[in-house]
Amino acid sequence: MEEKKRLIIKLSGEALSGKDGKSIDPIRVQEIAEEIKEAYDLGQFEIGIIVGGGNIWRGKTASEMGMERSSADYMGMIATIMNALALQNALEAMGVETRAMTSLNIPQVAEPYIRRKAISNLEKGMIVIFGGGTGNPYFSTDTTSALRAAEIGAKTILMAKNGTDGVYDKDPRSNKDAKKFGELTHHEVLENGLEVMDSTAAALCKDNGIEIVVFDMNIKGNIKRAALGEKIGTIIR
Known about the structure:
Blueprint lengths: L4 E7 L14 H15 L4 E7 L7 H6 L4 H25 L4 E5 L8 E2 L2 H9 L3 E5 L9 H12 L3 E6 L5 E2 L11 E2 L1 E2 L1 H7 L6 H10 L2 E6 L5 H6 L6 E3 L1
Parallel strand pairs: 1-2, 1-6, 2-5, 3-4, 3-5, 6-10, 9-11
Antiparallel strand pairs: 7-8, 10-11
Helix pairs in contact: 1-3, 5-7, 6-7
């Protein structure tokens, strides 16, 4: 029996929201769950998911309120747990066994994150959703993606972007002459300050040989295509 490939899917919080970019849109959550299930049903992958919390709480809002950074970050971690639970319920409604695991201890609603337990859940065929970020302030969910990938032995992160189809040399929304990269090295991403993920996450991926695939998740079937290694978006290795 062929060994399954273990991968991490990174979703932004905004991906779960409606057109206003705020709150949780049940219809959008269901659509994303269907896309993830399509990849899962291939039977070739063990899937972990990291979801952000920007649809519920953003650090910018906190700074405008004059809030202390650590408190703001903990609120953001709680927002990611809310999103994780929403996605878990959508997947389970489709018959996919799922576990939400959190780095903050909330045993009433989710399992605490324990590395060996997470790996065991994946090996049993469950999709594992990691909520709560790293459990520490000052770290983004990008860093969580890189950290969890390294911990569980996933060699690929599918960086699902909300409306952006890869990595560009400048913002394609405001620069018509922006150049899209087909492939990049981790070194190029760090050296040129390309906004794929924050520098801590990029360095973690570089040091641990983790491939990143940046693609537009709003095109139907793209999560499955990215998982299968089709040439969509930008590959960083």
